[in-house]
Design a protein that fits this description.
- By secondary structure, the chain is α/β, with parallel strands linked by helices.
- It has helices at about 15-25, 85-100, 120-130, 145-150, 170-175, 195-200, 215-235; strands spanning about 5, 35-40, 45-50, 60-65, 75-80, 100-105, 140, 145, 155-160, 170, 180-185, 205-210.
- It has seven helices and twelve strands.
- Strands 5, 6, 7, 8, 9, 10, 11 and 12 form an eight-stranded parallel beta sheet that branches.
- The longest helix has 17 residues, at about 215-235.
- The radius of gyration is 20 Å and the shape is elongated.
Length: about 240
C-alpha cells in the first residue's frame, strides 16, 4: 500500500495538498478507499477517504500503530554540501533510505557551497521516507558553521573522517560501538582546514579512515552511515 505523509493528521484529518493531488488525481482513489499515512515521528495511520478533493482530501482515522525505529541509536551525519547540489540531494535521499536521524549541512573554511535550500532537501527526504516505508523523517538542520555544530551535536561516540596524513587515523569499524549514539563529520571537497581539525579533536572527535579508496564527499557520508547499520546488524 502506498504511504502518504501528513505530519498533523492526528489533529487535522486532511492530507496536504501535494498528497491530496497524488491520492485523488494520480491514484484516482475515491470515497471509501483505505490508505496509509505517516506523521514522520513514528506513527503509522490507517485511513479511509471520506472526501476525494484533489487539494484537501479529507480522511477518517480507522487505525494507528507506532512504528519503532529499525535501528537502536541516534545516527547523525554532518557533511559539508557538495558544489553540485544534485549530489547533496542524492545523499539526503540515500541517507533517508538507509536510515539516519539527523543530517547537518556543514559550512567549513573550504566549503564549495555556502548556502543551501533546506525546503528542497526536506521534500526529498519526505519522498525517500515514504518510498522506503519508514515512519520517521530525519531532522535536517540549516547550513551550520562547523564550530556551532561541534558545540551542539550530542553523541556518545564522535568520529571525523579526515584525508590529510598529519593526524593519525584508525579504521572506523574496530572503534565503533554498535547501538550507541554516533556522529560522523565529513568535510568538504577541499577537506577540513588545519584549524577545523584541531577544533574537532578538541571536541572529542576521533579521526578515522574509511579505507584506502578515495571517496567523494557524498560517498564518504553514505558509506559511514551504511557501515554503522551493517556493524549493528552483525552484533
Amino acid at each position: 500500500m502506498i504511504r502518504f505523509y501528513s505530519p498533523d493528521i492526528a489533529e487535522s484529518p486532511i492530507l496536504p495538498e501535494s498528497d491530496s493531488a497524488h491520492c485523488v488525481r494520480v491514484l484516482r482513489m475515491r470515497e471509501g478507499d483505505e490508505l496509509q499515512a505517516v506523521d514522520g515521528r513514528g506513527m503509522l495511520y490507517t485511513l479511509r477517504l471520506v472526501d476525494a478533493h484533489p487539494k484537501h482530501a479529507a480522511v477518517e482515522i480507522i487505525g494507528r500503530e507506532e512504528q519503532p525505529l529499525p535501528w537502536r541509536q541516534q545516527i547523525t551525519i554532518a557533511v559539508a554540501p557538495t558544489k553540485l547540489m544534485d549530489r547533496m540531494e542524492w545523499l539526503v535521499e540515500k541517507l533517508t533510505e538507509v536510515g539516519v536521524n539527523r543530517i547537518i549541512p556543514l559550512r567549513c573554511r573550504y566549503s564549495e557551497r555556502k548556502e543551501i535550500k533546506i525546503d528542497r532537501l526536506e521534500k526529498i527526504a519526505i519522498s525517500a521516507m515514504k518510498q522506503s516505508l519508514k515512519a520517521y523523517l530525519p531532522e535536517i538542520w540549516p547550513m551550520t558553521p562547523i564550530k556551532d555544530a561541534l558545540a551542539r551535536i550530542q553523541a556518545e561516540q564522535k568520529f571525523v573522517a579526515y584525508c590529510a596524513d598529519d593526524v593519525e587515523r584508525r579504521l572506523l569499524a574496530p572503534l565503533y560501538r554498535p547501538g550507541v549514539d554516533v556522529a560522523m563529520l565529513i568535510g568538504p571537497e577541499g577537506d577540513f582546514s588545519h584549524e577545523e581539525v584541531e577544533a574537532t579533536l578538541a571536541a572529542g572527535y576521533v579521526p578515522v579512515s574509511l579505507g584506502d579508496n578515495r571517496l567523494r564527499t557524498e560517498t564518504a557520508a553514505l558509506y559511514s552511515c551504511s557501515a554503522f547499520h551493517i556493524i549493528d546488524d552483525l552484533n
